[in-house]
Amino acid sequence: MDRALYLAMSGAKQDMYGMQLHANNLANVRTTGFRADLEQARSMQAYGEGLPSRVFAMTERPGQDFSQGAVMTTGRDLDVTVEGDGWLAVLDASGQEAYTRAGHLNIDETGMLQNSNGNLMVGENGGPIFIPLPISKIEIGNDGTISVLPQGAPPDAIEVVDRLKLVRPDNGGLYKDVNGLFKSKNPGEIFDADANVTLLKGALEGSNVNAVGEMTSMIDLQRHFEMQVKLMKTAEEMDAASSSLLRLG
Fold this sequence. Notes:
single chain; alpha+beta
């Protein structure tokens, strides 16, 4: 009886983890550049004292779906989308370089270029990008070059201030950090800029989450969770029946 109870209990617990993962995907169905997390479950051998006769279920996040999301035209000068494979380099909260597909950019009051999540954009020199304010116009080229027209300057006085760092690592070598940014699986590894990565101006890449698929997975996990609870209840009833027979004996 305890074997069935343990298996059902561990299965129900992992079903809850799986529902949390799919719920997070659904919550980010409209998040710019979001990559959906994948989920799978497998049985694992439990080792310890005695015979190795116990197994338990484990939910894993083996990786992410790297397919491109739908591209939405905005016409905004500071909106960019990476065409095909590639990533925008940013700085995370700790100042470490990370990578994202979120290209909704803004300039803060100090002139630092950042995305909508507050991550500073990285320039070709590896540092944050500073925009000399005030400006009348800003343009981002297909190669990531950032040009500005200082306020009060003639129309032909456009100056190049920096260039967005664009990289194209092997997606298999990336993992998603807890902050939603991607980093190399090799600790501390920084990828070099790739001149072949290009941008589409005035557009944003949406999330690649399939809302219908995520809802279907959540319903399936919910039904599986209910089945595990019923199995735990059955194990409890069988244990109670065994105790009654022992008392009669």
